[in-house]
Amino acid sequence: MTKILVTGAAGFIGFHLCKQLLALGYEVLGLDNINDYYDVNLKYGRLAELGIRADDQLPYNQIVVGEKYGDRFQFIKLNLEDREALPELFHTHTFDKVCNLAAQAGVRYSLENPMAYIDSNITGFANLLECVRHAGIKKLVYASSSSVYGLNDKVPFSTDDRVDNPISLYAATKKSNELMAHTYSHLYGIQTIGLRFFTVYGPWGRPDMAMFLFTDAILNDQPIKVFNNGNLSRDFTYIDDIVNGVVAILEKEAPQNCSIYNIGNGNPVKLLDFIEAIEASLKKKANKEMLPMQPGDVERTWADTAGLEKDFHYKPAIGIQRGINQFIDWYNEYYRLNLTILQKNDVRS
Fold first, then answer.
1. Which of 252, 267, 275, 278 has a CA that sits 20 to 30 A from residue 73's CA?
2. pTM
């Protein structure tokens, strides 16, 4: 049975990838440090969906076996930058492939806490590359980001475009990952495939992303912050389309030893149209607070996915309104359930 290490397994994309790989019969070891960049309870909720009972007492650097999939899914709380524990994990477990989705995320947070990005995205990724190399693993798929395109005026964004002018530290770390992966491919024959993710949304999404922020604010009668006075567009891509693409890449060999692909919808949506679709699903109007552009942000993103379509038959299938409806269905169910649990606990106390 093929065994895959998925880092960032308690994160948005990592959780959905683990779930799909397990449904396909793979053996998966999930790794995450469960940091508090956003609400850890959401991460614990994702892990619970995978059969892992997790809370603030979850031990560090200990394998936990899932209750839902048996030995086919195991989890470990671990930092990628741990230069003793991570090599030991690779020494005691044999992996056929590695998918690295662990990273310190967020463009804006990189302005406040730059060293978190150096520790996780640079030091952590270098440590992982060394572990992959010494374990003799021949395939590493890893997350890059559309943020590497910076202020690129040419659209759609192509992997042939120069990406030498990042406008956030987060983007700079992702570009560094691509260069580091290229070096290890060249020196050690490891097949590395970097995926430049565009704006991913869907159930269990991150609470610092637009989909979550807008829905939460509208439902709670709070204003939503609309930057650059709404003159923004994003290549919004539903999580199922993203995961199907990542699985295809893990299963099929790439034509080159070192590759970079855009993974997105290939069809940008204006931010105000995105908000309008959320309003339609909620049947409630948003109170918009128009604001100037934020530092480190860009006006538009648009993925040229021709390479991924050609090499892996990637084809997004879920339209924006359908995807938004599915997110809001999940949001209502998840928070209604949690509210009920909280109310019961209040009564008991």
1. 252
2. 0.94
